[in-house]
């Protein structure tokens, strides 16, 4: 099933330019053809193509269905962007496929990258949402200083992935309470500074590891997200 994306479909009754081109020029859909459109807010629309156009294909809505995330809790990943853009873009794609509610690029003391193309990350997230047949687009924040971010977190589960040994660390899989909303902080290639870890602890974060292996920044963020889902699914199935 191919999904198209139109965040303002109820107001415009049309597809944005990129999806219009894919619909009309690439797929060569004709007037009267049926297509599926999601708005990124949890709604999936069955539509009929009224007027194919490469820039603003017009549609009419036939039916609407609420498609909520299959997980009933929030998973927020705050991660210092990697030095190489392609690794951060890969991470956003995979997080959206697995299931995430919010992704926040963090600016830390040892960050390799101080700026990021948020618009590009949103486009990748949209593509991953459509490909994985979801209807809710995760929030992609602008680059945020870690000090400011710590002040904003209110999830019951709070974890900071940390490599050094200045602070006692626990295993995320043992600390995460199944089915609860959680925020996971992942630092840059140079790790969080001790002051940043202490500040996180003061804000209720638990220093954790993702396991016995030392992971790259993007791998650690992905494993952290997936661990919460696996633990929650196992709990629902009565396996833990």
Which descriptors apply to this entry?
4-stranded mixed β-sheet; 8 helices; 8-stranded parallel β-sheet; single chain; elongated; Ribosomal Protein L25, Chain P; 34% helix; Alpha/beta knot; alpha/beta; 240 residues
Q: In terms of topology, how is this protein built?
A:
Elements: E1 3-5, H1 9-12, H2 17-26, E2 34-38, E3 43-51, E4 58-66, E5 75-79, H3 85-98, E6 102-107, H4 118-131, E7 139-140, E8 144-145, H5 146-152, E9 157-161, E10 170-171, H6 172-175, E11 182-186, H7 194-202, E12 206-209, H8 217-236
Parallel strand pairs: 1-2, 5-6, 5-11, 6-7, 6-8, 9-11, 9-12, 10-12
Antiparallel strand pairs: 2-3, 3-4
Helix pairs in contact: 3-4, 3-8
Could you provide a short overview of the structure?
With 240 residues, the protein is α/β, with parallel strands linked by helices. Helix content is 34%, strand content 24%.
């Amino acid at each position: 099933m191919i999904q198209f994306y139109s965040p303002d479909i109820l107001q415009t009754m049309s597809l944005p330019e990129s999806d219009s081109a894919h619909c009309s020029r690439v797929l060569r859909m004709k007037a009267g053809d049926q297509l599926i459109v999601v708005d990124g807010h949890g709604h999936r629309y069955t539509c009929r193509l009224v007027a194919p156009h490469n820039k603003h294909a017009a549609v009419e809505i036939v039916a609407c269905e609420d498609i909520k995330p299959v997980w009933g809790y929030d998973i927020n990943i705050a991660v210092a962007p990697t030095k190489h853009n392609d690794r951060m873009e890969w991470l956003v794609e995979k997080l959206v496929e697995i299931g995430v509610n919010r992704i926040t690029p963090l600016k830390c003391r040892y960050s390799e990258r101080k700026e990021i193309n948020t618009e590009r990350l949103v486009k990748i997230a949209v593509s991953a949402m459509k490909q994985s047949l979801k209807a809710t687009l995760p929030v992609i924040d602008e680059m945020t200083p870690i000090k400011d971010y710590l002040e904003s977190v209110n999830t019951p589960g709070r974890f900071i992935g940390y490599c050094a040994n200045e602070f006692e660390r626990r295993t995320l899989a043992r600390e995460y309470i199944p089915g609860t909303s959680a925020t996971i902080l992942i630092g840059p290639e140079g790790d969080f500074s001790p002051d940043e870890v202490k500040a996180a602890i003061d804000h209720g974060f638990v220093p954790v590891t993702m396991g016995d292996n030392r992971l790259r920044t993007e791998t650690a963020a992905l494993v952290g997200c997936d661990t919460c889902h696996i633990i929650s699914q196992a709990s629902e199935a009565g396996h833990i």
